[in-house]
Amino acid sequence: MSREPNHRLAGVMAEAGASNKGLAKRVREVAERHGEHLGTTHVAVQRWLDGRGIQRQTAVYVAEALSHKLRRRVTPGDLGFPGTSPAPAVRMGYAGPLTETLHALEGLTHRRPEDGRPGEPQPADAEVHSAALTWLVSRPDGVPTDGSDNRRVSMREVAAIRTAAGFFMQLDFQFGGGHAHKAFRHYFREDVLPLLGANYSAKVGEALFKAAAEMSQLLAWTAYDSGNHALSDRYLLSTLRLTQVVGDRMMGARVLANMSHQANYLGQAGRALMLARAAVEGGKAATPRARALFSAHEARALSTAQDRKGAARAMNEAEKFFERADGADDPEWLSYMDEAELMGEFCHCFRDLGQRSEALRFARRAVELTDPKYARTLGLCRLVRAQSQLMSGDLEAAVTTAALAVEAGDALQSARFQRYVSDFQRAVSAGHAAQPVVRQFSGQVRDALNRLDDE
Fold first, then answer.
1. At which of 337, 372, 392 does a domain end?
2. Tens digit of pLDDT for each residue in 2-43?
3. What is the distance in angstroms between the CA of the first residue and the CA of the last residue of the chain?
4. From residue 81, how far is each of 20, 61, 312 by CA, in Å?
5. C-alpha distances out from residue 59 to 38, 64, 434, Å
6. Distance between CA 207 and CA 251 in Å, rounded?
7. What is the pTM of this model?
8. Do 48 and 110 lie in a common domain?
9. pLDDT tens digit string along 85-110?
């Protein structure tokens, strides 16, 4: 490393108001949180300022200490420590200080869903239980009042974030999470996260954190839809912590419901049920439409667990909440939760419970009601209808319905949609592989996947 004075480190320390002794103390504290003992003193800090060398991991601790102090992301490279920046560290769990959550979210935006490692672990059940419990009993932090960025945020910037969130949400519904995630994470990193460290009134700050949580949970959802469940979990846990800042219980419960949805998809019935019930309990102050959504996810988890009585009760509760939905002032992000969505949740429940006639009836209704702009939802409901028709012994109708789903959904970059197709193809081939209609459908699936590869 050059022996020239490190002006970049000096500049950031001056901005943070950190003395040599103060920074040394903060670095020792950061190291201790990571389970390492450092003997850093003001003498070591002066050596760094003089341009002398620094250990790679120590540079990371220095950057983290100054990040906490400034309430914004600082990297070793920002401090004039070239070649010391590792890949952004990402916490798995429910972070304590808000700065840790913002640091984790910034790091996540550098990760692409397609780069996930096979078998990358999700957080353990104990960690998820702890996060849900912590959120349930938490009190709002309150809007930060010591932002280091001198910019003044107004409702105009908040409105822009919400407009962008609506646009990205529609991209996800129509083309799948794989299509939308790259644009999501760049916008979130460059245009949303920096505003959280700026200055704003209490009213603007509350709206800003709600909008940021909305965008963050969209990133989680698109990672999930792309098939990277470990990345999705990291986003979800960080977003859950973000909702605590201003006590956004409705969004927090939605995050828990999304975590339940993902766990259910992965066959983790116990985790799915715990998370759905946490959403139901934590979202009791939410609007009836939101509470219908939370109860529907509880019904999905109970159906996976083959609890017919419990699933029937939860579906009944969801239906009762939905009957009162039109009388409440719902947030824009909940607009997708219409009758078609509820029917779609119920048809999944009856399918998983093996109740063929009910599954078929609700799937038919979901397909009839779903707006074509929700292309993925429509495709998934068509495939549930096809599965229900197959369970009822109507092979021709089942293949015809599945073919419609593939024809309309072959441009969806959705790992979930593709799995639904594969599941149906496997089921229909089990006893009917030699049938001409089945062979024709298999060819259609191959063509659709080939077109996806070319797009």
1. 337
2. 467 888 898 888 888 889 998 999 998 888 776 677 888 988
3. 46
4. 17, 12, 60
5. 12, 9, 64
6. 12
7. 0.79
8. no
9. 444 444 456 767 888 888 889 888 88
